[in-house]
Amino acid sequence: MKRIIFTLLVMLSAISINAQQFYGRVISSDGFANIRKGPGTKYAIVKTYKSEDYLYYTPEKSGWSKVYTSKDKSSYMGYIYTKLIAKVEDVLPDNMETGIITDPVDNYVNVRRGPSTKDAISSRLDLGTEVYFIKYNANWAKVFNMDREFLGYVSLSRISK
Questions:
Q1: Closest CA to 79 of 41, 120, 38, 118
Q2: How far is CA 96 from each of CA 99, 133, 134, rounded to the nearest angstrom?
Q3: Is-contact 7 24, C-beta < 8 A?
Q4: Which residues contact 134 (CB under 8 A, 6 or more apart)?
Q5: Cβ distance 107 to 62 under 8 Å?
Q6: By the 8 A CB rule, do 67 and 56 touch?
Q7: Closest among 147, 148, 153, 98 to 125, alpha carbons compared
């Protein structure tokens, strides 16, 4: 009986370690990091993240991490080399601000996967939604919800302070 309980505890701890998801920031000296179909450079590139972009990840023993587009594990995208990610702690970066979503025409604002109207729309935010944001460039902001989860990019003109 003790042997069975011990085996079950070992299995559960292995599952919980593998299943632990973190929020991180890409920190590549090359300025980018590739997301691949599998855990290794021989696999095809499915997406490229720029340094300072945020993502959700689950480290694996292989030295690679599974990457997700959101906290939801069904949003699995591929793998990234774990050393290219810095875990984001529950503190706000110095340059993060708070703002309110606003738009003079519509009742919502598009959230995009990248800082361009050519990038796909990943979601929408209702007017009046409070967000954290970091200025990405002169026209775009990286937007986070109030739980500090990265949502995507929104035009700076749609955020009021």
A1: 38
A2: 10, 6, 5
A3: no
A4: 93, 95, 96, 97, 141, 142, 144
A5: no
A6: yes
A7: 153
Query: 125: buried, middle or exposed (CB in 10 Å: 19+, 13-18, 0-12)?
Result: buried
List 86's β-bridge partners, or say none: 25
Higher pLDDT, 35 or 96: 35
The mean pLDDT of 74-97, rounded to a whole number, is 80
Token pair recorded at residue 46: 């499915």
- State percent of the chain over pLDDT 90: 47
Strands 159-160 and 150-155: unpaired
**Do the Cβ atoms of 144 and 115 come closer than 8 Å?**
no
Cβ atoms of 151 and 126 within 8 Å: the answer is no
**127 DSSP β-pair partners:** none
Residue 160 bridge partners (DSSP): 100
pTM passes above 0.70: no
| Residue 114 tokens, joined | 């990248």
C-alpha 52: how far from chain center:
11
Task: Give whole-number Cα distances, 136 to 8, 39, 51, 58, 156, in Å.
Answer: 47, 30, 12, 26, 9
